[in-house]
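Researcher: Sequence recovery benchmark, item below. Answer with residues only.
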């Protein structure tokens, strides 16, 4: 049986039969209910990231909306168990976060918490056996979003008369974790206006699902939505409000490559309050297509998926066993070839990795992720000049991505060109100041040139963004000790 006022498998038993998310899936209850829920470096990296995103989207003439989905702890604080009374009077983490970001320009922050609190007392806003809102609560939050979008982007807004609610038996994500399992009668929505169809869907894995919808009767607006799990019960409203929606996630990243390719009228980052602690870099080797459109559903795709999961678990030898079956196929799909090249490189099979990545490049010769991986393989093969050329081509396509700048500067330093690396980073860091690795490389370049003061300044910036990164700490200790 579940313990009253205790934690069982990540579930906290509250008052009135309400379950709350406890310690699980990277979520730590103690810091979520803390008076100081965020450390300084996390807030700093988020602020720089959001500022850069807003600037990049403004250049493209695209509004950027950051839409928060509050967790139940601060919507029903009166139901928290004994021992957590102090939390009920504290500022919610999401409110603290948005307050810290309030000075940022060219970004619309949407917080539905006040409207959710005001709507309490009628239908349930959040499920008692689940960590998410009900479809009634999600409709309240949807209306908050629609108000924020007024004058920003056209919306076919649903009205209360368009939605009917009925009760259904439901097993929530927290209810299934307790013994015995617990279910509840919860409200479900029925909506008839502006029906939509899914015109594309890729299930992905590890929160990398992606789908597109088309609502023929909705206003002709294209929206790119990076979603959190709270969107599951809300999308039925969103999908009816815009003609064309591309929805991807869960993610706290933003992919500028897809924004440039898909050209939406607006971009929405829909982030659960708990995910504010799960910051993900925008600067990564993989493009949107690599993350959200790779085939993992076919028989060969399932092998590629297993290989990537094993690679993520740092089991490269086991991952290798899953790609050798299709590695040498001349008709290999480029996305599977890219997976194979990553696995082969992780196993130091660089000649075979080079062959695989070239299969991918034959189909997409300008895709920056393929070029960046090819550059790293070439470096391992001793082709430093060739590696610089490859990553330089990646930067021609995606100069906004710090990962490719990182690879380019690493190669410059490997070539002994510290002065060139420093000049290059001086320019890159003006636009990309939210990627700590670039500051770290700047510190190395300054150190190589004998500029100890510049090296210290740069590593301090790196630590401001990630104070726990061991590589940054080692560099700082070395500089401060000399």
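Model:
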């Amino acid at each position: 049986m579940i313990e009253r006022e205790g934690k069982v498998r990540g579930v906290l038993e509250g008052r009135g039969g309400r379950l709350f998310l406890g310690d699980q899936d990277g979520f730590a209850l103690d810091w979520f209910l803390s008076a100081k829920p965020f450390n300084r470096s996390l807030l700093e990296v988020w602020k720089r990231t959001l500022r850069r995103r807003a600037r990049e989207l403004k250049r493209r003439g695209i509004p950027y909306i950051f839409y928060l989905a509050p967790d139940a702890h601060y919507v029903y604080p009166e139901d928290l168990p004994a021992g957590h009374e102090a939390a009920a009077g504290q500022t919610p983490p999401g409110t603290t976060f948005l307050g810290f970001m309030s000075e940022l320009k060219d970004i619309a922050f949407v917080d539905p918490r006040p409207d959710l609190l005001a709507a309490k007392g009628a239908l349930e806003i959040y499920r008692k056996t689940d960590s998410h809102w009900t479809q009634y609560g999600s409709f309240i939050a949807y209306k908050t979003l629609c108000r924020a979008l007024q004058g920003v982007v056209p919306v076919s807004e649903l009205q209360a008369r368009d939605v009917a609610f009925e009760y259904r038996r439901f097993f929530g994500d927290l209810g299934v974790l307790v013994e015995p399992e617990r279910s509840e009668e919860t409200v479900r929505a029925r909506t008839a206006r502006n029906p939509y169809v899914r015109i594309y869907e890729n299930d992905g894995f590890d929160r990398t699902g992606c789908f597109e919808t088309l609502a023929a009767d909705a206003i002709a607006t294209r929206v790119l939505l990076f979603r959190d799990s709270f969107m599951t019960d809300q999308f039925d409203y969103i999908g009816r409000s815009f003609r064309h929606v591309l929805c991807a996630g869960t993610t706290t990243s933003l992919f500028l490559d897809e924004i440039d390719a898909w050209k939406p009228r607006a971009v929405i980052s829909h982030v659960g309050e708990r995910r504010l602690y799960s910051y993900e870099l925008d600067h990564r080797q993989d493009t949107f297509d690599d993350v959200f459109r790779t085939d993992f559903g076919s028989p060969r795709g399932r092998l590629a998926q297993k290989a990537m999961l094993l690679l993520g678990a740092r089991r490269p030898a086991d991952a290798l066993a899953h790609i050798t079956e299709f590695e040498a196929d001349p008709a290999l799909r480029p996305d599977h070839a890219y997976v194979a090249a990553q696995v082969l490189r992780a196993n130091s099979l660089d000649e075979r990795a080079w062959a695989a990545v070239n299969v991918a490049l034959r189909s997409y010769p300008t895709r920056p992720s393929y070029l960046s991986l090819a550059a790293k393989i070439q470096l391992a093969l001793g082709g430093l000049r060739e590696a610089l050329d490859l990553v330089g081509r990646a930067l021609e396509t995606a100069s906004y991505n710090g990962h490719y700048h990182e690879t380019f500067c690493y190669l410059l330093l490997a070539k002994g060109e510290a002065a060139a690396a420093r000049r290059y980073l001086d320019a890159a860091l003006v636009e990309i100041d939210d990627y700590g690795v670039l500051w770290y490389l700047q510190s190395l370049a300054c150190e190589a040139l004998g500029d100890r003061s510049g090296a210290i300044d740069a590593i301090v910036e790196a630590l401001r963004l990630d104070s726990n990164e061991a590589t940054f700490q080692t560099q700082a200790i070395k500089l401060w000790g000399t």
